[in-house]
Design brief:
Length: 282
């Protein structure tokens, strides 16, 4: 009883999902970097996720899905979407999935859902995904938001999740988890998911505009005042970026989990600088 989208851009693979169901992110999304993504929903059988991902290593999405479902006696009440890392997608919507149930398969994605307000939910998701510019994560969020605005799950709202994997794209390059966030119970879960994503993006994703930087020399006084107010800098506000200022700035960045946003030159990312000033003015 869910609407979701599985997609790949040839590098990233991911799933975005929302539902009138608690903690939908614990049931629907499955993915493996370099392999593909799966959404298991409608009286979901989450075991199918890992089975299909294993089969995708050597089979097409259609072959993998059909082979997995052949062992499921309840396949007519299941809905499963699959995409491989090349962007080839396939969906099974069982004949007994509750109305309205359906899916749209496009270039690099598949949108699917059941107990929807109507086909307009899937149509809105497909259009948003196809027209949104940016990375896969941006396109998935746009699709989920569009489906929600078009009526989504006709029973209401409760939870949402977003999972995007990229080879080596995780924290400090030590995992494949590019984005993995969930809203388990909320009156407006898609909007809350977007809010959490903005925090994740600011803190963990390294995709700033290269031109969005400020010179430490130009903002030294403002940074010193902010760090002094926050208790990280104990010197005088001199307007000179010295070793004490650098140490205080790095201490604050680590405290705020921005360690992967520290540059080794004489610049600060604009996103981090503005966040620091927001703390000063907060």
């Amino acid at each position: 009883m869910t609407f979701s989208i599985v997609a790949s851009d040839g590098v990233d693979v991911g799933v975005a999902v929302a539902s009138k169901f608690v903690a939908v992110g614990a049931v629907v999304p499955h993915a493996e970097a370099g392999v593909g993504a799966v959404a298991t929903q409608c009286y979901a059988n989450p075991r199918l996720g890992r089975v299909i991902l294993a089969l995708l290593q050597h089979r097409s999405p259609r072959e993998a899905l059909e082979k997995a479902l052949a062992q499921d006696a309840e396949r007519e009440i299941r809905q499963v979407g699959v995409v491989n890392a090349r962007g080839e997608a396939y969906v099974h919507t069982g004949g007994k999935c509750p109305y309205y149930a359906g899916h749209i398969v496009g270039n690099g994605y598949a949108a699917l859902g059941n107990i929807l307000a109507g086909p307009e939910v899937l149509e809105a998701m497909a259009k948003a995904f196809e027209t949104k510019r940016g990375e896969l994560v941006d396109k998935l969020l746009a699709a989920l938001e569009a489906g929600d605005r078009a009526g989504g799950d006709r029973r209401g709202r409760q939870s949402a999740a977003l999972l995007v994997l990229r080879p080596g794209g995780g924290y400090l390059g030590l995992s494949d988890t590019y984005v993995d966030i969930r809203v388990d119970d909320h009156p407006n879960p898609v909007e809350e998911l977007k809010r959490i994503f903005h925090i994740w993006e600011l803190t963990l994703l390294q995709r700033e505009d290269p031109s969005d930087v400020v010179s430490k020399r130009d903002v030294a006084a403002e940074v010193q005042r902010a760090l002094k107010k926050l208790g990280f800098y104990r010197g005088e506000v001199t307007g000179v970026w010295d070793e004490a200022t650098e140490e205080a700035f790095r201490d604050w960045a680590g405290y705020e989990n921005f360690e992967n946003k520290i540059r080794d030159d004489d610049k600060i990312w604009g996103t981090v600088y503005r966040y620091l000033l927001s703390k000063l003015n907060g």
